[in-house]
């Protein structure tokens, strides 16, 4: 007879974790899969910039775990607080103890509250990050609504790597769209700790066309790197200047979610090195890391990547549980950004393991054409909407 | 009586067969295949202008992917993605996608 059912614990119920639990249950129905997630509701980050711009209701961002439970997966509404990799045992805040054969960590990001002077959790209640969707998203929305016409919005973007590389630039675009409609004398300053960014030529071309004089991007070389913020005066300070905001949005430096530190799967960078075939940690055997927390080489920290990695990891875990060697995968990423409600742009990539990393497949991928006509942009805006419905159905059932 | 019992037995056989099939571990999908459902919905309930590929004739998918790759068939994003896959890989993915449900 077969041995006892293999037990797999998945920690984190976002685009990576929820998709992995579902895929694993489908890949091997004999496997005992438990998903651990403290929140009863998941609030999705993709499309949350549209909520900030008043184009979308936050309710459209929320997903529950009923469908996943209905498929026969145990969802424990709890938080993992301790982990013993040698005993393969996880303890939850509620006191339950889980023994696992394999553990999948999908904790997303943690904000580095120590990285930017003046920016701690209390500061985020005044100058929101809105980089976890939910209350922070709504706070930023309310602040924009309350701002008088002629006000200045300052957004600061962090150095690489961080969750959703095109996200700060989509956010600047959609806030500008809102300002153009509702408060046309206002201005948006985007302070950047980088000299280049995802889909840059597409964004800059669209900004010149749609929001001339409204968006000002200040790069690292031009003194855009923020070194401190002050919530009392709502100011951002760089090495060269101080910017006073009516609405200040700090997108802070990040690292892998907390359980990655507890499990000791994060390295000195704060992120988690993994094997590109199985997503097994380079630092701890029998623990896999997927999604934003992982160092996935050329793959960006996106919801699409997280979901794609989840499915590859699920089949790899199933193979390893059968004592088989997982086969070498290929993965795709596609990310849409809206510059305006009817103006979408995209970036895509195809990835494969190469020299121990996930690398771009040469000759594939890239961004939307720079010279595309308006109907192409409108079609990509429609695809952006459709993508959100599809990926959330694929992840949450 | 005997007939109903044999029907029952047959039904039980079917039920067991079903359980055995659904409980078996699925074979590893070909490289790249599981990423498709990020945009091409597996569930018919999702409202989307993106064409479904689930259950589609593999020959159709192979032809479309080759045309996307060469640029013969215009696309927004599929040309960029198709360039990342060889003929053999496309063939394998199309075969796998065709039997998904």
CATH architecture of chain B: Orthogonal Bundle
Shape of chain B: globular
The total beta strand count of chain B reads 0
**What does the oligomeric state look like here?**
heterodimer
Fraction in helix of chain A: 25-40%
Task: Tell me what you see in this structure.
The complex is a heterodimer of chains A (397) and B (101). Chain A has helices spanning 17-27, 48-52, 66-70, 135-146, 167-182, 200-210, 258-262, 303-321, 374-396, and strands spanning 7-11, 32-36, 41-43, 62-64, 74-76, 80-84, 89-92, 97-99, 102-105, 109-111, 152-157, 187-192, 215-218, 226-230, 235-238, 242-244, 247-250, 254-256, 272-273, 287-289, 294-295, 331-340, 343-354, 357-360, 366-367. Chain A has 397 residues and is of the alpha/beta class. In chain A, the strands form eight sheets. Chain A has a five-stranded parallel β-sheet, with helices on one face. Chain A has a four-stranded parallel β-sheet with strand order 13-12-11-17, covered by helices on one side. In chain A, strand 23 (343-354) and strand 24 form a beta hairpin. With 101 residues, chain B is mainly α. Chain B has a single domain, classed as Orthogonal Bundle (Cytochrome Bc1 Complex, Chain D, domain 2). Helix content of chain B is 51%, strand content 0%. Chain B is built from four helices and no strands. Chain B has helices at 2-23, 58-70, 78-82, 87-98. The chains are: A alpha/beta (397), B mainly alpha (101). Chain A binds chain B through residues 23, 26-30, 304, 307-308, 311-312, 315, 318-319, 322, 326-332, 334, 346, 348-350, 352, 361, 363-366, 368, 376, 379-380, 382-383, 386-387, 389-391, 393-394, and chain B through 22-26, 28-29, 31-32, 34-43, 45-50, 76-77, 80-85, 89.
């Amino acid at each position: 007879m077969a041995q006892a059912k293999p037990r797999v614990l998945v920690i984190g119920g976002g685009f990576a974790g929820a998709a992995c639990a579902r895929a694993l249950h489908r890949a091997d129905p004999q496997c005992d899969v438990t998903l651990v997630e403290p929140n009863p509701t998941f609030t999705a980050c993709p499309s949350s910039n549209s909520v900030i711009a008043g184009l979308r209701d936050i309710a459209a961002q929320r997903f529950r775990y009923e469908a996943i439970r209905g498929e026969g997966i145990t969802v424990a509404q709890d938080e993992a607080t301790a982990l013993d990799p040698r005993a393969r045992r996880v303890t939850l805040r509620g006191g339950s103890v889980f023994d696992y054969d394999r553990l999948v960590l999908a904790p997303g990001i943690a904000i580095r509250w120590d990285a930017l002077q003046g920016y701690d959790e209390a500061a985020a209640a005044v100058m929101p990050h809105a980089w976890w969707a939910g209350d922070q998203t709504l706070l930023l929305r309310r602040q924009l609504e309350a701002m008088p016409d002629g006000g200045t919005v300052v957004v600061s973007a962090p150095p690489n790597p961080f969750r959703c590389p095109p996200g700060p630039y989509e956010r600047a675009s959609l806030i500008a769209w809102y300002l153009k409609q509702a408060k046309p004398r206002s201005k948006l300053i985007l302070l950047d700790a980088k000299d280049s960014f995802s889909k840059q030529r597409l964004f800059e071309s669209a900004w010149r066309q749609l929001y001339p004089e409204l968006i000002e991007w200040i790069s690292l070389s031009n003194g855009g790197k923020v070194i401190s913020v002050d919530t009392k005066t709502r100011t951002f300070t760089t090495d060269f200047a101080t910017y006073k905001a009516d609405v200040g949005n700090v997108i802070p430096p990040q690292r892998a979610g907390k359980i990655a530190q507890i499990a000791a799967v994060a390295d000195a960078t704060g992120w988690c090195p993994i094997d590109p075939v199985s997503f097994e940690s380079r630092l701890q055997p029998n623990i896999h890391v997927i999604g934003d927390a992982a160092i996935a080489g050329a793959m960006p920290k996106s919801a699409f990547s997280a979901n794609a990695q989840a499915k590859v990891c699920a089949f790899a875990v199933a193979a390893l549980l059968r004592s088989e060697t997982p086969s070498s995968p290929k993965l795709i990423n596609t990310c849409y950004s809206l510059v305006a409600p009817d103006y979408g742009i995209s970036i895509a990539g195809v990835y494969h393991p190469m020299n121990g990393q996930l690398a771009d497949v040469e000759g594939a991928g890239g961004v939307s054409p720079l010279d595309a006509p308006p109907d192409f942009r409108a079609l990509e805006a429609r695809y952006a909407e459709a993508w959100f419905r599809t990926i959330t159905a694929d992840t949450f059932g | 009586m005997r007939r109903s019992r044999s029907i029952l037995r047959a039904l039980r056989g079917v039920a067991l067969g079903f359980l055995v099939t659904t409980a078996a571990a699925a074979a590893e999908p070909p490289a790249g295949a599981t990423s498709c459902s990020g945009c091409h919905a597996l569930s018919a309930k999702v409202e989307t202008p993106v064409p479904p590929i689930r259950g589609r004739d593999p020959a159709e998918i192979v032809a479309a992917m080759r045309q996307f790759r060469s640029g013969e068939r215009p696309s927004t994003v599929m040309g960029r993605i198709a360039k990342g896959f060889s003929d053999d890989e496309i063939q394998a993915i199309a075969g796998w996608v065709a039997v998904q449900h």
